[in-house]
Amino acid sequence: MGLEPFTPDSTIFQDENVLRDGYQPDTLIERDEELKAYQSALRPVVNGAQPKNLFLYGQTGVGKTLATRMVLERLKSDLKPMSNVELETIFLNCKSLTSSYQVSAHLVNKFRSPDDQIKTTGYPSGMINQMLWSAITELDTTHCLIVLDEVDSIGNDDDILYQVPRSNDNGHVEETQVGVIGISNDFTFRDNLSARVKDSLCDEEILFSPYNANELRRILEQRADSAFRDGVLDDGVIELTAAFAGQSSGSARQALRRLYKAGDLARDEESGTVTEDHIRAADEAVERDKVHEELVSVPAQSKLTLFALLILEAEDELPAKRSAIYGRYQMAARKIGADVRTDRTVHDRLSQLTLKGFLDVEEKNKGPKGGSYYQYEFSIRPDLVEEALREDSRMNGLFE
């Protein structure tokens, strides 16, 4: 049987783009307190004063990046009639960047035109920083806000998070007042920052908590009104979708993906309605995709830690103590020429991987004299971990 012709359909969706990740609604509901705190923290800019440095944290899909874009758009719009304040905003996603040097180099290119880009390797770090200070100085604006999204990717190499927030105080930039907004999906990242970085970056902190089922329901209702045709969604579909996402992650992104997938399934079946059965099938599919997506996106040090557990799994040595995991981690890091971090770093990675649901941990108690320790093992299928690691060109070398 050959390919069937592509034909437009009009049974399920009115505007399916409304359910996609890149869609930006006119209003961000269920985040009133966070938006209020955000605007309060940026108010010095409107008064022509030095911006505060902000640190936002919370898991993926809870509105951090969307809130940032909406608040900065509103700020720039409100500043247009004001002749005494000119604001430039620079947005850099650090997801694939693992060092302060890489962040600095990519920031330089953000300030430059497409035909004036620099190579992001090969310069002395001092020269890269000087290029950055010059780029900010040449803006000829009173204020510059630099957003570093997914900044936890840089790990412990956090010098950039000291240098940029202090660029005015240290005399690197004189005329333009600089502020930094750091956004992290890793709850432990802030705790591992050096003391000087915490003092510089964290003038204000805003926590974006996971959404509960009722909040997710209202978000889904807002999007569904525009995304689906009238009468397509069966009673209970929105509530069931919100319940699944609330139990799983508290992520609006994951809730919307479930609803979108359910609509896709209904369309493929040429059904006139989206039912609870479609939601249940979508939930299973999205959960599998979510695990893979999150595995692919964890930092390099977490991937090395996961590979250490894969070795122990192959040796039938799981569950394992942290000391055994650290030994395999060291071997893996040396094999691909990665930095070998401390035992404490691996402990933090194990804690974060457990928090994400990839690992199970059990405390073992040997009594008053034997003390207690933790053992770790996979809570998901090891083949899913291997598949995700093989997609990383650097980690793929571990399997050779």
Describe the structure.
- The structure is a single chain.
- The protein is of the alpha/beta class.
- It folds into three domains: 32-207, Rossmann fold (3-Layer(aba) Sandwich), CATH 3.40.50; 212-296, Orthogonal Bundle (Helicase, Ruva Protein, domain 3), CATH 1.10.8; 298-399, Winged helix-like DNA-binding domain superfamily/Winged helix DNA-binding domain (Arc Repressor Mutant, subunit A).
- It is 47% helix and 12% strand.
- The protein is built from 15 helices and eight strands.
- The chain has helices spanning 32-46, 64-79, 100-111, 125-137, 160-163, 195-201, 213-227, 237-248, 252-268, 276-297, 300-314, 322-335, 343-355, 367-370, 382-390, and strands at 54-57, 87-93, 143-149, 177-184, 204-207, 320-321, 359-365, 372-378.
- The protein has a five-stranded parallel beta sheet, sandwiched between helices.
- Helix 8 (237-248) packs parallel to helix 10.
- The longest helix is centred in the last third of the chain and has 22 residues, at 276-297.
- The radius of gyration is 24 Å and the shape is globular.
- The model has no long low-confidence stretch (mean pLDDT 92).
Biggest pleated sheet? 5 strands, parallel
The CATH homologous superfamily of the largest domain is called: P-loop containing nucleotide triphosphate hydrolases
Number of helices: 15
User: Into which percent range does the helicity of residues fall?
Assistant: 40-55%
Neighbour order of strands in the largest sheet: 2-3-4-1-5
